[in-house]
Design a protein that fits this description.
Elements (H helix, E strand, L loop, with lengths): L4 E8 L3 E8 L5 E8 L2 E2 L6 E2 L1 H16 L3 E9 L4 E5 L2 E4 L13 H4 L6 H4 L10 H11 L1 H4 L4 E4 H10 L6 H4 L6 E2 L4 E2 L1 H5 L15 E4 L2 H7 L6 E3 L2 E2 H12 L4 E6 L3 E6 L12 E5 L5 E7 L1 H8 L7 H10 L2 E3 L15 E3 L7 H23 L7 E5 L5 H10 L5 E3 L5 H8 L24 H16 L1
Parallel strand pairs: 1-6, 6-13, 6-14, 15-21, 21-22
Antiparallel strand pairs: 1-2, 2-3, 4-5, 7-8, 7-9, 10-11, 12-13, 15-16, 16-18, 17-18, 19-20
């Protein structure tokens, strides 16, 4: 029996890891392997489990090589992460971007970071600006940092480890790092001011081959010697690739996972407001796209329970007057200066109603973000990822945005598919979502309820 030719995509999210095998002929998903991601709480600081991921990836690749002919290996990861190398060794453990250790360097770092007008990236908390991480590591661990001869963005680290080729890439450089000037398509002033330019390999196009798998690795894992390693992509930008290629602009893509990232394709950059934590991400094709994001997946987990919610639960929430006010994450977003709180008889809610409240909250914050980031001309709203299966969230969005079609992807592999589509010879025909969400009949007008919520939020700001 002939084995199917596939591309394998390693998807490293902040919460979960996933390996997908897609048929090279038509993008069919033939295998999915998952496990949770973790942060190692050990000296000298909270760090990513690089070797744990590597061992798991190699083990699963070896298994998949017995089932398929693996022609290509591609990578997509969360942002705000880089690996500092000294030769072939990691010089500094990879810092968890949620650690607030970097904040101690804010005063000094802010004197070096580029202006918002140059980087189109706001000053973010913890280590969400990658430049702040690198600055803090250089100041706190100067001896180790002095040995660094290469800095690789997170997708490129995995590409290098498989191929031996070092490269940079624009989507990971351009996701609120402070390291990139998206309008000049070049490194920012910070990189030159800190003397880091020579540490970053030259950027190569997203999806370009880095060369074949290293011969010893190919033999160890049972891979073909000509299996190609692909220059990887930032995960939120991977979700945009099918829409940039095939959707009619302007349109908006809501990519949902740990983060809810809202990208207004075709909207002008002048919608961006630094004080609202808005930024430009750089697409796989090098274009700056206005974006806004909040940690919606994490907040949904905090607010919800294991009990699923129904329309009746949502009606009960809105009739009771309960509101969840932002925010319940300390990792940025338009309400990052506010601490989450509840209004109304929250103690009376059962578990399924708490899950309904989580969906209501995430829909309201999403709608607020949509109003900020979209230009005057507005098109379809596409929802990708975990929230694409949340009917309450989708119906609320549709009712809050009656002049736009809200279209949910039925494909759980949006990030994976986008990663593969960035490869030039994976030019599959892609069917975008085209079925508008049905509007649920609510006993309380969600627009009125949103306006009450917005008034309460505004009062918290004052």
């Amino acid at each position: 029996m002939n084995k199917t030719n596939v591309i394998i995509v390693l998807d490293i999210g902040k919460t979960n890891l996933k390996i997908c095998a897609l048929a090279l002929s038509d993008a069919r998903q033939l295998a999915v392997l998952k496990r949770s991601n973790c942060v190692l709480q050990q000296a000298p600081y909270p760090q990513l489990d690089i070797e744990g991921i590597w061992q798991w990836y190699c083990e699963k690749l070896k298994d998949l090589a017995q089932r398929f002919v693996i022609k290509k290996l591609a990578f997509t990861t969360h942002g705000a992460t880089a690996v500092c190398l000294s030769g072939t060794e990691i010089a500094l453990q990879v810092l968890d971007y949620e650690s607030d250790l970097c904040s101690g360097a804010d005063r000094e770092y802010n004197r070096h970071r580029p202006s918002y007008e140059q980087s189109l990236s706001p000053a973010l908390g913890a280590g969400l600006n990658l430049g702040r991480q690198l600055y803090w590591q250089q100041q706190q661990f100067s001896d180790q940092f002095s040995t660094v001869d290469c800095i690789l963005l997170y997708p490129q680290y995995w590409g290098w480890r498989m191929s031996g080729t070092k490269a940079s890439e624009v989507t990971s450089l351009g996701c609120h790092t402070d390291l990139w000037d998206p309008q000049q398509n070049n490194f920012s002033s910070l990189v030159d001011n800190m003397g880091w330019r020579e540490l970053f390999p030259p950027p190569l196009p997203t999806g370009q081959s880095l060369g074949p798998v290293l011969p010893a690795l190919a033999a160890q894992l049972g891979l073909s010697p000509d299996c190609q390693v692909i220059n990887g992509i930032h995960d939120s930008n991977a979700s945009l690739v099918p829409y940039i290629k095939h959707a009619q602009p302007p349109c908006t893509v809501i990519s949902t996972g740990t983060w809810v990232v809202i990208a207004a394709i075709g909207s002008p950059l002048d919608t961006l407001q630094e004080q609202r934590d808005m930024l430009a991400n750089v697409s796989a094709f090098g274009d700056a796209i206005p974006c806004i994001r909040f940690m919606g997946g994490r907040e949904w987990q905090i607010l919800s329970t294991e009990q699923s919610a129904s329309l009746e639960d949502l009606n009960a929430i809105m009739q009771s007057g309960v509101q969840a006010l932002p925010c319940f994450s300390e990792q940025g977003g338009p309400f990052n200066s506010l601490k989450g709180e509840f209004i109304g008889p929250i103690e009376q809610l059962n578990d399924s109603q708490k899950s309904a409240l989580a969906s209501l909250y995430c829909a309201f914050v999403t709608h607020y973000c949509l109003d900020l980031v979209q230009g005057e001309q507005r098109g379809n709203i596409y929802v990708e990822g975990s929230f694409a299966g949340n009917s309450l969230y989708l119906s609320l969005l549709a009712q809050l945005n009656p002049l736009q079609r809200v279209l949910a992807s039925e494909d759980s592999t949006g990030t994976t598919l986008g990663t593969a589509l960035s490869v030039s010879d994976c030019a599959w025909e892609v069917k975008l979502p085209n079925k508008a969400m049905p509007v649920m009949q609510l006993e309380t007008d969600p627009v009125e309820y949103y306006n009450i919520w917005l008034g309460l939020v505004s009062a918290c700001r004052d």
